[in-house]
From TrEMBL:
Species the sequence originates in: Streptomyces sannanensis
Superkingdom in the source lineage: Bacteria
Name assigned to this protein: Rv2525c-like glycoside hydrolase-like domain-containing protein
Domain (Rv2525c-like glycoside hydrolase-like) ranges: 9-198
InterPro entries documented for this protein: GH (IPR017853), Rv2525c-like_Glyco_Hydro-like (IPR015020)
Length: 206
């Protein structure tokens, strides 16, 4: 059983006043596992109203400062060192070289800073754009060690629809968001959830 935890980031889509350390501890004790997500700066070429955008000149420094913030927020929720933090990068035009280079600079700085603070690096993105940019980058230096790909094909798998070759992200480093906005009813309450197949780390709660 998995729970997404959008730890913070200026581009987080909604407030989460109930996301507290005590709530995380309580839900974890019920057997639920947490996936920390940080919605950081978004690409300069992206068509969206997100308030925090990358620039080529500041991509590296912003990636490092956002990672520092992500670790602080995760730690405050009781998510200990060696937990993964997944950087959420929404779709953008990866054929725009200047834009894509800025994104990779930002991601590398974010990843390097996470690792220096002994948290695991993860990345959430789309197989048609942001995840593809990470998976196919020629220079693998300081790229995330875990890749969570959005491919809404309704297939519960982390392997058979993986599009980039069997030698990448091995050793339980995959996650697959295969369906979104699914209605489920539990205890008389109907909620809207996303569905994921998971074969990668989850947060360590302490």
């Amino acid at each position: 059983m998995l729970v997404w935890a959008r730890t913070d980031g200026k581009n987080r889509g909604c407030a989460q006043p109930n996301l507290t350390a005590s709530w995380v501890k309580s839900v974890n004790s019920m057997g639920w596992k947490f996936i920390p997500i940080y919605v950081g700066a978004q690409p300069p070429c992206q068509n969206s109203p997100n308030p925090e955008r990358l620039t080529t000149s500041a991509a590296g420094s912003l990636g490092a400062s956002d990672a520092t913030d992500a670790v602080a927020k995760a730690s405050a929720l009781g998510m200990k060192a060696d937990s993964p933090i997944f950087l959420d990068m929404e779709p953008y035009d990866i054929t725009d070289k200047a834009c894509n280079d800025a994104v990779l600079t930002y991601v590398r700085a974010f990843t390097k800073t996470l690792r220096a603070k002994t948290y695991r690096s993860g990345f959430y993105g789309f197989t048609s754009s942001s995840a593809q940019a990470i998976a196919t980058a020629t220079d693998r230096t300081d790229l995330p060690g875990n890749l969570w790909y959005a491919l809404w094909d309704k297939q519960y798998t982390t392997t058979t629809d993986w599009p980039w070759g069997a030698t990448q992200y091995t050793d339980h480093s995959y996650g697959h968001q295969y369906m979104v906005n699914s209605k489920e009813t539990h205890g008389g309450y109907t909620i809207t959830v996303d569905q994921d197949a998971w074969d990668r780390p989850v947060a360590i709660i302490g």
